[in-house]
Amino acid sequence: MDADDDRVFKALADSTRRHLLDLLFEREGRTLTELESGLEMTRFGVMKHLKVLEAAGLVVSKKQGREKLHFLNAVPIRLVHDRWIDKYTERRVSALADLKHSLEEKTA
Amino acid sequence: MSNDTTTLQVYRVYIRATPQQVWDAITDPVWNTRYGYPGANEYELHAGGSFRAVMPAGMMGPDEFVGVDGEVLEADPPTRLVQTWRFRFDEAQIAEGFQRVEFDIHEEHGGVTRLTVTHDVTAAPISAALLQGDANLQEGGGGWPWILSGLKTLLETGGSIAS
After folding, report:
1. Is the distance from CB of B37 to CB of B67 less than 8 angstroms?
2. Which chain B residues have a beta carbon less than 8 Å from that of A57?
3. Nearest Cα to B99, choosing from B77, B131, B76?
4. Which of A31, A45, A46, A74 is most buried, taking the most CB atoms under 10 A from its CB?
């Protein structure tokens, strides 16, 4: 769905949000307070960015006891990869294969 | 803090399909052979039933190979499946033991189903790296993001992702 892809690309088009994803990749299940301590930013600012990431599906939050923990969800990135990146790298690979094939035919 | 003792991975995907279709795609080899890792995921769908991910002969030697095994803890079709999970491709993976995996299938509005996979990887760093998709596909990587992306593609388009 294009609207989903839009949200993912827009969410990724910000260095603070990419940094938040990196923090969650290093260690999953962090609280807002923990994430905040890794950034030069107000709590409100971090919350705002997390909200964008959650709306894009890149972060999933889960309540555990009294804490709200945040998890990196790489599935939307994988979907973008499978739908967009693979499509073009495959063509490049097959173009190289074709080139090799035609060069070998010439020398044969 | 709670996350010093427990390490979870949480994955979520929205799929244009019914909860029953998503349930079948996870539990029925007719469907689950068509995405993710090669082979069939075989479930005995009741508490105490077995789970095996069976790779076809020729992939890991001349015979069929059970790459993952576990036990079904809860089977409540089509909304909730809880099972254990143990990779068994080498001794180090086997030594990490069984982990808990929960599948929550939730119907959203407009013919969309939300699938959430929660995998408890506490004290299982090798499995955690595999499940996160750290390794490349040839080494058996891809993990849950790759599996769930394939599941969504299969149900929404009927096709499979070229691997």
Report:
1. yes
2. 12-14
3. B131
4. A74
Q: Which of A72-86, B93-107, B129-143 has the lowest mean pLDDT?
A: B129-143
Task: Give pLDDT tens digits for B32-74.
Answer: 999 988 899 999 999 999 999 999 998 888 999 999 999 999 9
Tokens of B97: 């033991």
A63 and A90 housed in the same domain: no
Question: What is the SS3 assignment for A9-77?
Answer: HHHHCCHHHHHHHHHHHHCCCECHHHHHHCCCCCHHHHHHHHHHHHHCCCEEEEEECCEEEEEECCHHH
Q: Considering only CA atoms, which of A4, A54, A81, A60 is closest in space to residue B15?
A: A4
Q: How many CA atoms lie within 13 A of B39 on its CB side?
A: 19
Q: How far is A44 from chain B (nearest CA, A)?
A: 23
Give the 3-state secondary structure percentages of chain A, helix then strand then coil, rounded to 5.
Answer: 70, 10, 20
Distance from CA of B107 to the nearest CA of A (A): 16
Burial of residue B106 (CB within 10 Å: 0-12, 13-18, 19+) is middle
Residues of chain A with Cβ-Cβ distance to B149 below 8 Å are 75, 78-79, 81-82
A40 with A56, same domain? yes
Architecture of domain B2-36+73-157: 2-Layer Sandwich (3.30)
Two tokens, residue B10 = 């949480």
Task: Look up residue A92 and give its amino acid.
Answer: R
Which residue's structure tokens are 């089509």? B78
Closest-approach residue (CA) in chain B for A61: B10
* Per-residue pLDDT band at A23 (split at 50, 70, 90): very high
pLDDT of residue A28: 85
User: Residue B53 has which token pair?
Assistant: 């991910």
